[in-house]
Design goal:
This protein is α+β, with helices and mostly antiparallel strands and 88 residues long. The protein is 35% helix and 18% strand. The chain has four helices and five strands, in the order βαββαβαβα. A hairpin with a 4-residue loop joins strand 2 and strand 3 (36-39). It starts with a strand and ends in an 8-residue tail after the last helix. The structure holds zinc ion. Zinc ion binds at residues 38, 42, 44-45, 70, 72-74.
């Protein structure tokens, strides 16, 4: 699990984030306060505060940390296609 606040502010942090996403070290985003995880493109994820945002490399990792899937995106996608990968 990677917390968003552990990344640098501004462009350097953003660059690092994109690097982690392209290397598949980050595949899911979560809310630390609500203990919910979802896709990186989730609209409810975009609204959350940076200090509450965390990133996971896999669904297993998120579940292991005690997070449950976001109702807005992930569960619905899973129902339709269990093997669907996260699209950016
Ligand atoms: Zn969602």
């Amino acid at each position: 699990m990677i917390t968003h606040s552990s990344l640098e502010d501004g462009f350097a942090g953003l660059q690092k984030l994109h690097q982690l996403i392209s290397s598949k070290e980050i595949q899911l985003a979560g809310n630390r306060k609500l203990r919910i995880y979802g896709t990186l493109t989730c609209s409810s994820g975009k609204r959350m505060k940076k200090e509450n945002r965390v990133f996971f490399s896999s669904e297993e990792e998120a579940i292991e940390m005690g997070y449950r899937c976001c109702r807005n995106c992930w569960c619905r996608q899973k129902k339709n296609n269990d093997k669907k990968t996260v699209e950016l």
